[in-house]
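Usage

Read records sequentially. Each one opens with the input sequence:
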Amino acid sequence: MSHEHQSGCVCCGLSRRQFVAAGALAAAAGVTAVSPAKPVFAQETGKKMKIRVFFSLHADVQNRPDWPNIGFDFRPVMDDYMSGLKKVLPEVEFVSSLANGADAANQILAEDGDQVHGYIVFQMNCWNPVIQPVAATGKPTLYCDFSYAGSGGFLVYSAQLLRAKSENASFIASSQFSDILEAARCFEVIAKGGTPKEFVAAVENVRKERTKPYNKELKIVEDKVNCLSTEKLLEELKGVKILTIGQPWHQYAGAAKEVFGMDIVELPFADLNAAWDKAMAEKTEAQKIVDRWKKEAVTIENGITDEELFKSAAMFLAEKALLDEHGAMGITVNCLGGFYGGHIFAYPCLGFFELCNMALVGGCECDIRSALTMAVLTKMTQGRPGFISDPVMDVATRQIIYAHCVASTKMFGPDGPTNSYEILTHSEDRQGASLRSLAPTGYMTTTIEFDMIGKRILFHQAVAVANSYEDRACRTKICAEVSGDFEKLFSEWDQWGWHRVTVYGDLKKEIFELADAIGFTVLEEA
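and closes with the structure output:
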């Protein structure tokens, strides 16, 4: 699915069936697979080992909205990567190629034949499926994330490698180039006559060794959460309505009704636009909101006009009007498809932040599963908002970074403290207006997703330790140190997709009690 038209970046872009089929694509292109049990390079030939470096991206200068952002110039980054690789492995011949997907990769692989002995794939944009046909060659393959750029595809595709128990391809995700270079040194195993399977073991050792140890001295701020009892929570959820605008994930609607008694109400873009037109025409209320934002925001990015803020304020009023009209708790909008398709004329991001501050739900990308998860968490905690995000993982810091272009500024509920925020453009396309919430640090967070159909809850916890100002990718980035097994956290992205929902507070006891009450199992992904 193209990023412009998918209903949400939660889509993994490639199913397990398609991943397996990538091997067939490679075979069809004439690529001869190498047994992972056999060496792929013989020193006695006197030839240098040759490694092809694939950069998986749309173009060397980004020409469309996607992570990291439109207009991003990858050329200096690629030059640095190639220069660094040549320095640490001077006896290896490196060649590089750009590929925007499996077809482009397969053409190059067919030409390589036996002349190339291994591969490095850098995931530079999220959903370019290059690693699959490369891994299908059977040759030693190192898969690397360019953080805050290819991280969505990287997490999903590396989890596919783990699930397939690949014996020739392994991965690393690090903000430190030195970690990637150390993983690349594992090609020395191949240069000495080792097998792809031995190469994979070496990379895994590097990844684990380079993962920062858990900080046992990390201080966690005491934070008592006033949660509803499970019995009371289930009563409160009955009849809760979530509105969806534009291409929802229909399969969750019936399951939400069966499990929680919650209703999913599907509305057309026209209803949202009609409410928006009304708010734009009335002017007064929208202008009051604009004036408040201009006083409260620490920064308003140059280029965001008062007109853009007014359109965003009117969008909030439109969202709230629809909630009031239908007696609903939340709304989730196909924001990307709606905006790029000309169905809506302002991003809903600032409106979502206002709704979440009111203990309501503003959910991104028409992702019903995450919107339902947000609703359950907000009800459970009596007002704390869920933060839907596209996470990034970093072994150098042992952090998972929860990233999206909107978040609440009242992480402890409407009556709690308000944290600072900045108003910036939406990151991927540098248009409209969105939010960087500078979230509180030192607190335990709980992250979950409900699988209403499979009757499971995905669960992990982490301590919020910092906010990232990295310009690449989404605006709000809460950096959190994982409480548990960081390595295990790489495993489930292919099954659950990219999105996660995070709430402030230690809710482990409450989540497990809820799971028992509704007959769900809890999958602890860390």
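Summary fields computed downstream for this record:
- The CA atoms of residues 367 and 403 lie 16 Å apart.
- The longest strand covers residues 456-467.
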